[in-house]
What we know:
The protein is an alpha+beta fold and about 675 residues long. Helices cover about 35% and strands about 20% of the residues. The chain contains 24 helices and 21 strands. Strands 12, 13, 14, 15, 16 and 17 form a 6-stranded antiparallel β-sheet that branches. Strands 2-11-10-3-9 form a 5-stranded mixed β-sheet. Strands 5-4-7-8 form a 4-stranded antiparallel β-sheet. Helix 1 (about 5-25) runs antiparallel to helix 2 (about 35-50) and helix 12 (about 430-445) crosses helix 13. Zinc ion (ZN) binds near residues 408, 411, 426, 431 and 433. GO terms for molecular function: dioxygenase activity; DNA ligase (NAD+) activity; metal ion binding.
Amino acid sequence: MNKREAKQHIDRLRKEINKHNYHYYVLNQPLIGDYEYDQLYKKLQDLENKYPDLISPESPTQRIGGQPLAGFKTIEHSVRMLSLDNTYSEQEVRDFDTRVRKQLGKRVVYEVTLKVDGVAVALHYRDSVFKLGATRGDGVHGDDITQNLRTIRSLPLRMLSKDRELANIEVRGEVFLSKKAFTDLNRQREKQGMPLFANPRNAAAGTLKLLDAREVAHRGLDMFIHTVPRQPGPHYHSHYDTLVALGTNGFKIIPHIMQCKSLDEVFQYIDKWRNAREALEYAVDGLVIKVDEFKERERLGYTIKSPRWAIAYKYPARQAVTQLQSISVQVGRTGRVTPVANLDPVLLSGTTVAHATLHNEDEIRRKDIRLNDYVIIEKGGEIIPKVVGVVKERRTGKEKKFKFPKKCPVCGEGLVRLPEEADWRCVNKSCPAQIKGAILHFASRQAMDIHGLGYSLVNTLVDSGIVKSLDEVYRLTAAVLADQERMGTKSAQNLIASIEKSKEKPFEKVLYGLGIPNIGMNASHVLVESFGSIDKISQAKHEDFSRISGIGDIIAQSIIDYFKSKKNRQVIENLRRIGLNFVHKKSRTTLFLAGKTLVFTGELESMKRADAQAEVRKHGGQPASAVSKQTDLLVCGANPGSKYNKAKKLGVRIISEKEFLKMLKKGGKA
Ligand SMILES: [Zn+2]
């Protein structure tokens, strides 16, 4: 067999194996037995071993490859990954339908699917080959988890057939663990004395965060594709049709998908799955209702948080009964005081629950919740379950009423409750509980992303008076840190480096990190885009905010109140002097290099090579050091080396530094 014949043979085998993978992992209808399959696979492996330069990343033998990663790259989503509005109320589903029909001025067709409780991911294909996969992250930026996603057998590394409109598509889906895979995984962890996962979704999320793809491959992850964020081409005007086409093209699309021509049909679907979902192999917590036509979606548009053309309906939560042992009171970073129920641990929808929120003093009184009561707890969409009522029939007379504390349990100052508010607050700006909360929020991943500034260290630093406000985080030194208990020199240095690096975070993250009440990531994004600088925001009046869509009165008042405080203004001034970004730098990165491999040769004039490589990564590409058949582009500086000749020989596209810069500027075409 010569090389040309070998290549043909390899191509045939790959096609054959891909087809069988699809029938086995996606359709669940294998066409051949395991033995025959193994023979095909082995034949391919042997041939590839003999002709290693014919190995390509989309070969079925290459699913699990590569070395463990040091960390995940961050990528920017080409279309924001928003979460959907969700509701437990059938009335709100009706309201949604009314709104949609009113805005479109006609009847609509909905696409309805089950809502699988998993982890959302985005997959990018180039020329029908899987190139890049990412987590949702904060909706704007996600982690590049391509290597981990490749291990999921139902994910096609190459599409089965060529469809020009689908070849360069982005699809989104849900990675999940089946109920069985979850039980098996926990059983195995129990044997090894490792902590158990609370539920299948946590287990899937934890698995995707592993840096070693070989470990991921053993966990049994699976995935469903449910979303195509952009109309792929003129042929596909219905989202449903697009998914069906993807389904025949190798993808495992979300099962039981349906087009509903009326709201009645939607409710039939809701009823059908209310109990039937328990028999499915995967966890389903509701369903998703979307307007089907891409064009109509475009007309409906988005709110600041979610698309106007979709809503998730969640089945009402499950409940459990357990005994209330005590009530403790927590102080949040905004000074809000929340009573928390400490419970006799009980299993609820697959998770052990030991704490539940009681919201506030009025709620406790209204529900007449007493210590030692048997209480009904419920888990809704929130992470923390809540106490919804008391089983009064089980009272024995030993129950005691709870007295809400008058003083802050942390700093001892008197608590304050404003007439129009339900919550008690600690208004002591130097209250350690608030400082701790503020620092943890500031250091969190979505904000300044400071690694190593965790709960116990922040506790120590605040309690010992070393850090009294956000800006003092930047005064920490490795020497001071190394004095702390359990802190080695190495981790102290790492933390200092991470603090230093956080100074580069864009204004949007800094603003969010300040922890102004009611300013979440979305609001922060909008404020930064609209005002551009902290000075403009701090001077803005009510009418300035009211002009901005997505910024309501509550947010506006919050900001105005925040800047009234001299202490807050001082902290910002200090942070500004330290060098944090308080001005918006407009740089919209796009992922136009997604899946592309670039190599540099020669001396670049305008930037260091490391910076050029960072630019490539920022736009989704992969810088490599050597030219091979996998190279998409060679960027050629002055005095190029041997890579130039090799690229020429292999027919790799070569561009100059100037063209490279132009490409970065234009976000695509050189
Ligand atoms: Zn306090």
